[in-house]
Structure formats: structure tokens, C-alpha cells
Amino acid sequence: MSAETPAAAGQFTRRRLQFRAWRGARPFWAGLFVALGGLPIAYFPYANLQIGHLTLAMSTTAGAGSLIIGVLLVVLGISLWFQKHVRVFAGVAAILLALVSIPVSNLGGFLIGFLFALVGGAMAVSWVPGEPPQAEPPLEGKGTDGTPEGAVPAAGDTAFPGLDKPGTTAGGPTVPGPRGGVDDGEPSQVLTAPGAHDLSGTSPANGANGRHSAG
Q1: Helices marked H in the chain
Q2: 56-92: per-residue pLDDT in tens?
Q3: CA geometry: angle at 155 spanning 151 and 156, to 5°?
Q4: Dihedral of the CA atoms 67, 73, 75, 78 (nearest 10)?
């Protein structure tokens, strides 16, 4: 494989894409069908069919009219490629010429040219240029990527919903701790060690399992 093969393949792909874009911006197939329809209409009246030693002439008295119809159809087909704004006129003219070719040019080139010109003219009349896609505006309450606003914290924002940011203090009221004595005129609860109010007389310090002996 030579070194020029990738470059040639890339150039062929670029040319193919350019031709596709050019073809999509105009009624290409309509013009092709109309031009192809004019060829048999103009050719058959001047052709001779050879069958062995027998020569069958298909020319008619309206040979000049068939030639004119065929040439006009070819011109209309090419005009559809390079002058797309005349597509309606060219399509209607192609349909009328196809109908006229039936009695004039051997049944419209043995119905081959008639059908091509008729279908191509109908496609030209119905073709409309496409509109480029428009970008949809973002919906209200959503970000540019479709996610709700505030769902993802911004860069550098380490705070979470319901929590304070690091390095800041809460601004709410503080709850005072328990104090011994009286708090605002009411006795406060004092935490005491287990066994401090044990009236049974049993404690782990004296090692007795029963009551104190009297005296």
C-alpha cells in the first residue's frame, strides 16, 4: 500500500460529501428524471432497428417535433440543477411536453421517456428547499445541559444543602448547658454518679451483699 492511498481516500470522501451537500440543496432527482425522459423521445424517431437482414425504420413524419421535445426536456432537467427557483415552471413544462410526446413521438418514446418526464416533472413541482434546524431555547428553570439549576454545586462551592460552609459559625441561638442550683428561678437537673442516692446501703466499696448490720 502506497503512502498516497490515505490522502486519496480522504479527498474522495471530501468530494463525495460536497456532492451530497450540492445534491441536497436542489431538486437533483427531478432534473435527472426529466433529462433522461428526453433522450428516448428524441432518439427513437431517428433510430433503425436491425433484425437480421431486415431493417425496421422507426422514424415518423413528426421527427423534428420529437427532437424538439427531447431537447427541451434535457434543457429543463439541467435547469432544475442550476436554477432551482424555476422548479415549478420547469416541472409543469416537463409534464406538458411528456403528454404531447405521446401522439408525436412514438407514444412518448415507447412510454419510457413519457414516464421519466412525467415523474420528474411531478417531483420538481413538489420539491421545496429544506430549512436549517434551529437551536431550541433552554427551558425555564434548567441549565444549559438540561439539569435543574442548583442540582450541581458550582466550582469551589463545597457547601451542602442544610449545612454551613466550612470556616463559618452558625448564627442561630445557643442552648445553655446545665448548671447547679437554680436556673431562671427553677431548679436545674444535676447529673450524679450511679449509687449516690442508693438507700439500700449496698455499694461496691464495702463489698457487702446485704444490708448494713445495725450497730
Answers
A1: 5-24, 28-43, 63-82, 87-104, 106-110, 112-126
A2: 666 666 678 888 999 999 999 999 999 889 999 999 9
A3: 115
A4: -140
All three cell numbers of 2, joined, read: 502506497
Residue whose grid cell is 451483699? 209
- The CA distance from 182 to 13, in Å, is 92
Asked whether the beta carbons of 127 and 27 are under 8 A apart, the reply is yes
How far apart are alpha carbons 1 and 195 in whole angstroms?
97
Of 120, 134, 5, 11, the C-alpha closest to 74 is 120
Tell me: pLDDT of 180 over 60: no
Please give the DSSP secondary-structure letter assigned to residue 186.
E
Alpha carbons 69 and 94: distance in angstroms, whole number: 9
The pTM assigned to this predicted structure is 0.56
Cell of 120: 420528474
Q: How far apart are CA 43 and CA 102, in angstroms?
A: 14
